[in-house]
Amino acid sequence: MLKAIPTVQNTQQHITQLVLLRHGQSIWNRDKKFTGWSDIPLSAKGKQEAKQAAYLLKQAGLTFDLCFTSSLQRAKTTARIVLSAMQLDIPVHESWRLNERHYGALEGMERWPAIKKFGIWPILGCQIKFDATPPYLDAHDPRFPGNLPGYAGIDKNELPLGESMQNTLARVKPYWEETIRPEIQHGKRVLIVSHRNTLRVVTMLLDQLTSAQVMKTRLATGRPLVYELDQHGHAVRHYYVD
User: Fold this and answer.
1) Across the chain, where does the E strand assignment appear?
2) Which mean pLDDT values do the consecutive 10-residue runs of the chain (242 residues) have?
3) Is residue 100 annotated as part of the catalytic site, yes or no?
4) Cα angle at 90 between 53 and 27, to 5 degrees?
């Protein structure tokens, strides 16, 4: 009687690399002001951080097929500097859904004046609690995105007067699931250049973090974070290129 010969299955997975990059230091980062959706440019240090990020990515042998970024200039400028330095001519998709968390009435304020005006808990709470919102803007405030020409084509009901991290997740998640993740599942190598809190909720989706865990996540400016993803878009591992 012949013995059945066991078949050898190929267990090797196809791995796609995704890189998350927080934009370089902005002028308001430098001045320790709440920035959010305020469209603030990079500082000189921020531009240098973008160049350094490009150097690190090139040294690691990474390349990209697509780039996603927010509609804010500090992220767009970082992406432009990185792709230029890497000599990559690839599609760049901008979306307000990748904007930073909106800090409501705190935008443009330093922390101590904000505490004096609103009290310590409205400031501290929105920094440490996942579902805590900053003081809201009035809908007539010029800082409300619905009053800015760049958001004229968007339903004002979708635009924030202020956001908790929970609100930020709700804004980012559909764009991740419907636009970015399918590209990764098709094998595209993706670079996302965005903001601290936006990228924190992306890591929450990738690593299945709890709300408490994501509030402890730190992302430095200009430091590329590489995720290796399987064919389903699930994270296998992640690491900084430096």
Assistant:
1) 16-22, 66-69, 92-94, 190-194, 225-229, 235-240
2) 41 80 96 97 97 97 97 98 98 98 97 96 94 97 95 95 98 97 93 98 96 93 93 87 86
3) yes
4) 40
pLDDT score recorded for residue 1: 40
| Residue-level pLDDT at 36 | 97
Residue 16's nearest CA partner among 65, 75, 78 is 65
φ and ψ of 166, to 5 deg: -60, -45
User: 49, 100, 107, 163: which is the annotated catalytic residue?
Assistant: 100
- Classify burial at 11, counting beta carbons within 10 Å of its beta carbon; exposed 0-12, middle 13-18, buried 19 or more: exposed
Which helix H or strand E contains 233, and what residues bound it? none
- In this structure, the number of other CB atoms found within 10 A of the CB of residue 64 comes to 20
Element (H, E) at 13: none
Is residue 186 part of the annotated active site? The answer reads: no
Q: For residue 141, what are the CA distances in angstroms to 59, 122, 136, 137, 169?
A: 46, 19, 10, 6, 24
Distance CA 82, CA 79 (A): 5
Report the Cα–Cα distance between both ends of the chain, in Å, rounded. Answer: 59
| Residue 77 parent element (H or E) | helix 73-85
Nearest in space to 131 (alpha carbons), one of 212, 230, 223, 234 = 212
Residues linked to residue 154 through DSSP beta bridges, in sequence order:
none
